[in-house]
Amino acid sequence: MLGMVLAAGAGRRLRPYTDTLPKALVPVDGDTTIMDISLRNLAAVDLRDVIIVVGYAAQAVHERKAGFEKRYGVKIELVHNDKAEEWNNAYSMWCARDYFAQGLLMVNGDTVHPVSVEETLLSAPVTSDILLAVDDVKSLADEEMKVTLSEGNLKKITKLMDPAEAYGEYIGATLLRPGAAERLADALQATFERDPQLYYEDGYQELVERGESIHVAPIGKVDWVEVDNHDDLAKARTIASTY
């Protein structure tokens, strides 16, 4: 099984930090970046072959690749998203489709969370080929990627949902088993061909509509944050040093 980090986004709401850096390389604890935490977590659960999907300011990741490999004992393969500044991340995830058949644990490159999230996904019973890490504890608002369930299966995943209806928030970490590789790649392609501004989570919804069973793994009470703006960054800097 591989580790994977989606790190192609520009992160415009984090300027000036992201004037020359992708969001994943913004520091959150001294010199420690969001990507440092992602790679450290993957190495800690012995996922040492890591795919990083890059796009915006990709050269900055290239320049740090050797340092990351030495620091965390990982081997990194960079996959280039040539439309990172034009299209959303359904296409970004699809760019790494050739690796799906090896199985992978994918994390968003803008999420700061402890290694317990990876441990939860990897230790969960094998009940579906796609398993999503979900926070079922925090209070939700409009911006979160919310989920509902039906008889334990994912029913809906979208930001466009009344928070009161949601089971919880998908936190940007997925365990993908090899059996779903071709089906997920096809669903992602159908998603970005329908609208290139859609999210990879819309690809998961496409699979659900096709009859795929996708399950969730509750992460419990965990301090984590998706870093979209400066308020999120301030929170990330508060919690990152506690991991």
| Gyration radius over CA | 16 Å
The shape is globular
Listing every helix as H and every strand as E from the N terminus to the C terminus, the arrangement reads EEEHEHEHEEHEEEEHHEEH
Indicate the low-confidence ranges by residue numbers: none
N- to C-terminal separation? Answer: 24 Å
Number of helices: 7
- Main β-sheet description: 9 strands, mixed
Percent range for β-strand residues: 25-35%
- Strand tally is 13
Structural class: alpha/beta
User: What's the helical proportion of residues?
Assistant: 25-40%
Q: Mean pLDDT across all residues, rounded?
A: 93
Which key features would you list for this structure?
243 residues; alpha/beta; nine-stranded mixed β-sheet; two-stranded antiparallel sheet
Write up what this structure looks like.
The strands form three sheets. Strands 1, 4, 5, 6, 8, 9, 10, 11 and 12 form a nine-stranded mixed beta sheet that branches. A two-stranded antiparallel ribbon has the order 2-3. Strands 7-13 form a two-stranded antiparallel sheet. It is 30% helix and 26% strand. It has helices at residues 34-44, 58-72, 89-94, 116-123, 181-194, 200-209, 230-239; strands at 2-7, 27-29, 32-33, 49-54, 75-80, 104-108, 111-112, 130-135, 146-150, 153-158, 168-176, 214-218, 225-226. With 243 residues, it is α/β, with parallel strands linked by helices.
